[in-house]
Write a structure and sequence with these properties.
Elements: E1 3-14, E2 17-22, E3 27-30, E4 45-50, E5 56-60, E6 63-69
Antiparallel strand pairs: 1-2, 1-4, 2-3, 3-6, 4-5, 5-6
């Protein structure tokens, strides 16, 4: 896929970064060290797009972090 838009069901901070759970149950973990100034809230719109070298960028609250799919 090139881009997916969804709604955030859950976001929680882990020792490695954020874990994002989308409306369809898909889980994505943050793999970079970017910080999010505001914690993502359930119901927020997210966009996941393909990035360089097989990675993905998840945008929420007008900020993007690099992620990988967990399930």
């Amino acid at each position: 896929f090139e881009q997916v838009e969804s709604t955030l069901r859950e976001a929680r901070k882990t020792p490695a970064g954020w874990r994002f759970v989308l409306e369809d149950g898909a889980r994505w973990d943050q793999i970079d060290t970017e910080s999010l100034p505001l914690p993502p809230r359930p119901g927020a719109k997210v966009t996941i797009r393909r990035a360089a070298m097989g990675s993905y960028m998840l945008s929420v609250n007008s900020r993007a972090v690099r992620v990988e799919r967990v399930n």
